[in-house]
Each structure stands twice: as C-alpha cells, then as structure tokens.
Amino acid sequence: MENQDVIVLKRLLEWREKQEKAVLVTVTQTWGSSPRPVGSIMALCESGAVVGSVSGGCIEDDLIAQYARTSIDADHVPRPIHDAAPERVKYGITAEEANRFGLPCGGTLELLLEFNPDTQTLRVLIEALEKGELMQRITNLKTGVVTLQATQSVSALKINDTQLINTFGPQYRMLLIGAGQLGEYIATMALFCGFSVTICDPRESYASGWRTQGVSHMSDWPDDAVKRFAPDRRTCILALTHDPKLDDLALLEAIETEAFYVGAIGSRKNNQARKQRMIEHFEQTDATLAKLKGPIGVYIGSKTPAEIAVSIMAEVLAVKNGVNVPDQMHVAQAKAIQEQISKESI
Q1: What's the whole-number mean pLDDT along residues 144-171?
Q2: What are the residue boundaries of the structural domains of the chain, listed by start?
Q3: Residue of 6, 55, 140, 191 with fewest CB within 10 Å of its CB?
Q4: What is the β-pairing status of strands 135-140 and 108-115?
C-alpha cells in the first residue's frame, strides 16, 4: 500500500491534469483532541470525489457541500472552486459545532484550503517522493504560490501569517528476514499501515510458500540483503528466523545503518545468547548493541503468530511515531515482573 500522502497527491494531480477544479486541505493546527494529526491532508474534486481525510468524515461532508458543483441539499448553493489565495478555516469552535462535526470533546482544528494547486509543482513533488527524497512544500499564504525544497530532516508542520511549510517523506520501508507464518502476518499489517515491505529468505522451502501479495522478495543471504536494501531513517528491519546463520550477520549490518528500528524475535534467553555471541565473536559491546531490540514487541500476553505480529507491529509504530513505550510494557520487563509477582505469591 502506498504512502497515504502520495496517494492523495497523485489523485489530486490526476484531477488537475484533466482540468478539473480541486482543493488541497491540510490540518494546520489542533486544540484538544483531534481525529487527525497536524500535517494530515485530503483533496476534494469539484465532482465531490474525496481522497484522504482530516476528520472522521463530518468535516469532509461539509467541505463537499461547500465546494462540490452538485449538492444533495437543494437549498445550498456550492461555492465555486476558483483560483484564489489559500483560506484558513476553523471547525469545532463551539460545543455545538464540535458535536455537529463529530469532533472529540473540546476538539478544535484549523485547516488550510489551497485552490487548484499547480500541476507541475505537484508532479515534481510526487517524483521526488517516489525517488525516496524528503521534501518541504512551502505555500505562500498571500498568493498561493508553492515552492519545493529538499531537506535532510523531518520537521513538524510550520505556519505563520505568510507561509505554510509541510514536510513530505517517502514511504516507510520494512525488511523482514524470514518468510515464515509470522512474517506474513507482520507484512499484512505493515502494508495496511503504509509500509513498503520486502521479505528476504534464501531458503527456497520457505520463500516458495509465501502467499501475501504486494511484497517484494530477495533471495540474497540476509547480511548481503541488508547492504543492498540500503536502510535509511524511514526503514525498520526485523529478523524472524530463529537461525543465527541467517539473523546474526544481518542484524550486525542493520545496527550500523540509520534504520529507526532493528530487532529480532526470540525468548529472553535466546536474545541474551545472541548478544553474547556478538560480543565474543564480532567485537561488539553493550553500547554498540544498544540499538538492537529483543525480545521485540509490547507485552499483550500474545500466544499465536497473529497476536505476536500485533505485539511487534505496535512497538514498531510506537518507535516510528516517537512514542516511549513504558518499561513494564516491553516483553522482557513485563515477563520479569510477572515472574517476580508469582514468586512473591507463593
């Protein structure tokens, strides 16, 4: 599944290339609870078609009623989408309005509406994102003119009286070492979360049984695959085979990269043994192995491969989104706490 922002931008470009009028909507500020985070985008065509979202649906419906050329409300005359300066609007200012638009209690959000975005600038932005580049889209709030600028770091959306700066990044990537059943569950969840997924397994008996669609395949030895994959700061790498011949060297390569998450499945005992092997035979230290996570996942009492995949994907997303998972939720710490409680109860 493609990055959601790219999906929105591509559909918007299709409309504009067909000379259809359209609006690009960006969440610029929120107060209290909000259904969608700052930086979220959606696009609305004059036909009433919508891609992306800025709320649970009610705000989208209001924007459709305002700007679609046909309206189900016979008493409502839609506003024409014409070339104009961007417009800032707020929803949820009053309790009545928050309730009307389905916003959480106390929720208010501000949107920026950009009318008929330029096709050439959209095309350049999409091409850059598909090449894996990180881009800033800078909108002049007085004229609507957009400029693009490559950047090396992800930054939060910025808006003032004169311009909006929103950073767009390439798709997050996941490299899975091991084509077993657990990998299929993780891959399915990752695809739905917008990751591009690649599976690496040189074992033909495992690779040939893979069923999940939309996944790229590599048959290299995993350490070579990590090098060829060229992980960046939007990459996560998971070793799932339980086989040191496949996992260890790949993990050693992975911890040297910018990957935001590197981890391996296994029990506490197996993960400790892995780290000990790396220290004794590969000149690693506790400090150099600090990036290596294991046992991976958050503790939810998972037993089945599907439940374990949920646990792992939850931790990956937490790290991706900059959320600190409490120590007692990590698998190793949670199990240690449970064992201690069990001993004390005897």
Answers
A1: 90
A2: 4-168, 173-337
A3: 140
A4: unpaired
